[in-house]
Amino acid sequence: MPLTLLKNHRLEFVLRLADNCLILSQRLGEWCGHGPELEEDMALTNIALDLNGQAQNWLEYASELEGGQRTPDRLAFLRDAAEFRNCLLLEQPNRDYAYTIARQFYFDTWHSLLLTDLLGSTDQRIREISEKSLKEVRYHLRHSSGWVIRLGDGTDESNRRIQTAIDELWGYTGELYTPDTVDETVCAERIGSDLSTIRSDWLTAVHHILTEATLRVPESSWMHTGGKQGIHTEELGYLLAEMQFLQRAYPQAQW
Q1: Distance CA 31, CA 40 (A)
Q2: What are the residues whose beta carbons fall under 8 Å from the beta carbon of 181, sequence distance 6 or more?
Q3: Cα R_g (the chain), whole angstroms
Q4: Rounded to the nearest 5 degrees, what angle is found at the Cα of 221, between the Cα atoms of 219 and 225?
Q5: How far is it, in rounded angstroms, from Cα 247 to Cα 117?
Q6: Is this model's pTM higher than 0.85 or not?
Q7: Residue 224, φ and ψ in degrees, nearest 5
Q8: CA dist 181 to 10, 13, 123, 202, Å?
Q9: How far apart are CA 64 and CA 43, in angstroms?
Q10: What is the distance between the alpha carbons of residues 136 and 255, in angstroms, rounded to a whole number?
Q11: How far apart are CA 165 and CA 197, in angstroms?
Q12: What contacts 78, CB < 8 A, 6 or more positions away?
């Protein structure tokens, strides 16, 4: 069933929260065994596991909202790309460590603000999952913002690389805080957040870290859109082909 046609805004909202975590977890998992140093290899793997656990919690709730039509595993491994609701930023390839850190920093800053606000949601399950997730996400933000500063205020080469990543990924950040009908509906019902407030706080926090890192704040106002509505880049297709291979090749396989 194409999720674009769903009128259950609560389910759409929860799937967005789930898919953001799931897709970024998969991206970070690609660094396992390939990190720039052992400590970072372990750090990124642990962050990936945190996000995977958060995705599991959100998908369990999404399954309940669907009335149990699909299990969390089916939602993760048997949906096609057009049914995923993650922001486009999170499906972008790792490229190098600077890109990974810039992508993580942009998302962590937003994720921390969103989960903090969702502690006041009228939906008890959203409050509970947000509270549990926030403890991990605060660490994620300390990690990514610390590396932005370290790379930006480091050597000429590290500054160049992180500035390039900051500039090129900037155009994917608007989707995080630009509301659509789903966002406006869950905000009005106080299930979700007011993204205009999130946007203001996000910009302030990002500007602060970039300034400390001696980096330029991108000036472009043009933004990519579509991920929250199921319109993705080809990168998601490649990611899902790898992530979903086992389940699709061996349906209902269990360890």
Answers
A1: 9
A2: 9
A3: 18
A4: 135
A5: 36
A6: yes
A7: -75, 145
A8: 12, 11, 19, 21
A9: 32
A10: 28
A11: 26
A12: 70, 244, 247, 248
E strand or H helix at 97, and its extent?
A: helix 97-118
Q: Amino acid identity of 101?
A: I
CA distances from 5 to 33, 61, 62, 81, 88 (A): 41, 20, 16, 15, 20
The set of residues, in sequence order, having a beta carbon less than 8 Å from that of 109 and lying 6+ positions away, is 141, 145, 202, 205, 206, 209
**DSSP string computed for 208-240:** HHHHHTT-PPP--------GGGT---HHHHHHH
* 83: amino acid identity, one letter: E
Based on the number of CB atoms within 10 Å of its own CB, is 194 exposed (0-12), middle (13-18) or buried (19 or more)? Answer: middle
- 89-125 per-position pLDDT tens digit: 999 999 999 999 999 999 999 999 999 999 999 999 9
Place of tokens 């993580």: 104
Q: 180-224 pLDDT, tens per residue? A: 999 999 999 999 999 999 999 999 999 999 999 999 999 989 999
Q: Which domains does the chain have, with CATH numbers?
A: 3-249 (1.20.1260.10)
C-alpha span between 39 and 47 (Å, rounded): 12
